[in-house]
Amino acid sequence: MSQRYWTLIQANLKVAPHDWSPFHDAFEMVGIPGTVITEQPVAIGGYAYEPDDETISLLKSTLFERGASSVSISQVEEEEWSESWKQFFKPRRIGKRFWVRPTWEESEAQPGDLEIVLDPGQAFGTGDHPTTRMCLELLENAVSPGDAIADVGCGSGILSVGACLLGAGSVIASDIDKASVESAEENATRNNVKYTALEGKGFQVYEPSAVFDGVVSNIISAALIALAPEAHQRVKPGGWWIVSGIIQDNWPDVLATAQSVGFALDERLEEDQWVAARFRR
Asked: Residue 244: which domain range?
């Protein structure tokens, strides 16, 4: 079997910015949601599998526009890529009840904890990023036993696993990235929960008549704005839509769009220039 290689694209900076979110957003816009920040040297990087020249060119120009002093590109063997995540993904408590850890760490969960065990592979979602943490915190106060939940843009499946552990009756997850769908399926098995993971954009792969008690979407602001009208149709009256992946500057547009289609703001969280919120229909 031939060795697979990943491309590491790294933006190097002279000094650390006050807010890393524009750089993370640049990677996410070209389909690289998981980023790694280093202090020495000051840099932020992301891995892509066989990116085309157009993707690399667009990302480089965006990173320079946002303050990168240089952009380096290198190839990394798959085994090295997989190992690189282990130094950044550590066990952590999220909210009041969630304990999230990678498969290679021993459990330190306490009685009453809802433990999520993950191997994210190449998918976004370890609980290390503020957008994921805030989603789990909002889910914790939203999911009721038996709820039907949709996880649109599921990444590693961490939010789907969390919803199941909170007592959701059914969960359907979707993502445009095949690798994320595969990771979500593997993490369902790993956590002894059951949900359906589908490959597709937005609600396109859901049954036309399917409605949910809650929808969670940890995706970029532009996608949330485009998704809002159908999200409102898919959420039952009295149900909720949790949104995240929003940089602070984009929050007014997301809020205005959600309210314009009929949602009311229920709760808002903010961390490191990122915003997450729960809307009610």
From this structure: 89-280
